[in-house]
Each structure stands twice: as C-alpha cells, then as structure tokens.
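This part of the workshop introduces the protein records we will be handling. A learned vocabulary of local backbone shapes supplies the integers on the structure line. Getting from the letters to the tokens is the skill we practise here. As an example, a complete record with its sequence and its structure tokens follows.
=====
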Amino acid sequence: MKTLANHLLLFDAECPVCDAYSRALVKKGIITNDGRKAYQDNLNTETCPLVDRQRAVNEIALVNLQTGEVSYGAESILRLYAVQYPILKELLTLQPLMWLLNKLYAFISLNRRVILPPTKQLFGLQPALKIHYRIAYLVITWFITAAILTKYTLLLTDFIPVGGSLREYFICGGQIIFQGIVISFIAKQKRWDYLGNMMTISFTGALLLGLMLILAPLIGHHQIVYLGYFMAVAGLMFLEHIRRSKLLQLGWWLTISWAVYRLLVLLIILT
C-alpha cells in the first residue's frame, strides 16, 4: 500500500471532524504521522513558502515539500487518494468536474463551523464568511427540514390539525426571518454564524424525526409514540440551542425568542 511521501497536509485542529479525518488518513497509510500538521501551528515559511494562509484555513491544503506546490480543497483530497487509487488522477484533468467538486467542497468547508462549532477558537484566522455559501446552506437545510416535518405531521393528526402542503415551509422560513431580526438587534456581527447554527439544529432535529418516519410502518398507528418522540427531539434541540448560543457568547435572548416563536406558531395552529 503506497504512502504519499514528501507532502504535508494542513488541517484544522479546531475542527473535530478535520482532526479525525487526517488521523484516519494516517491510519489508512495514505500519509505518515509527520505528514499532517495543524495550520494553527507556526508554519515554517521556508518549508511552506507558497501557502496562502487564509485559503489554507478555508480549504484543506496539501503542500509538496520538494517543489513547494500547494493544492487546496477537492484537488488536495483527490491527490491524497490518488496515491492508492491512481485512476483518480484522471479526474484532476476534467475541468467541469473539478469545478463542481471544488464548489461542493467549499460549500461544506466554509460552513463547517456552523455544522459542528469548535468549543474553543484559539487561532486568529478563521474560515471566511462567503454569504452565498451560507445562504445556500440556510436554503437547503430549510427545504429538507420543512419537507420532513410535513411528512411527520401526518403522524400527529390526533393532536395537530392537518395544514396545507406549504405550512411547514412557511414556519421554518419564518423562523429564519424572525431570528434574523432578533440577532440583528442583539449582535448583528454574529448574525450569519447564529443563523447557520440555528438551521443545523433544525436540520439535525428533522433527521432524527426522519428516523421515526422510517420506523413508522413497523410501529403502526400509535400517535402517542410519535408525539412523545417529537417532544423528546424538541427538548434535545432546545438544549443544543442553549449550548451553541453559549459558544457564540449570545446569552439567553436568542434561545428565548426561538422558543417563543415555536410556541406562538403552535398556538396559532391549534386555534
């Protein structure tokens, strides 16, 4: 099994997934333990003279220590795996495909801090905020969350009146607008980070509800079970909102407004 020699992978030590992923590359034998280094560490400018520090923060960087050449993002990933799967080298020459892979990688990488926020931020440089990627993240999680909720409410018809096919889309979209207004008054500079975290919570809750949708044919018509599970998921979401708000140093107001919006919507639906 071949190992990529004379290369250095720069990863984000504040990102648990990035750290675990780079360790997995070492375990798989794609790179050596010395072939990975956190970009938060002091980089030797002689060793990595061509590294764009901000771009390395945005996208994983792979440095050729012999030539000084640096690749980023999806290209870095392909070059890593091409060591053991040479056919992947051919993909690097397909410009339309690489454009798409780079966009997909950037979408994930530039939203990684709202998908899984670090408990501590010790490094001065942070992933850049590119509004179009953040808005795309909000829109995608909004649509998927609303679609799952629309299906799940059909399991709760004994407790919640059946609404129109777009009801949950309006509710989820309204939450983004409502919380966006609240955060703009409290901490406008953190608006996009907060909204990203909020929609990650909603999306994760929707995925948990999706698991129950899969099990529903086995459970049958026991709506009290579906209601209890829904309440449990809502409770976990509430606790996660508190945790993430603390990480963002936003206090309690956003959690209060988040809960108030949900309660107001529920009252409107029930009445």
In short: The mean pLDDT is 90. The longest helix spans residues 191-219.
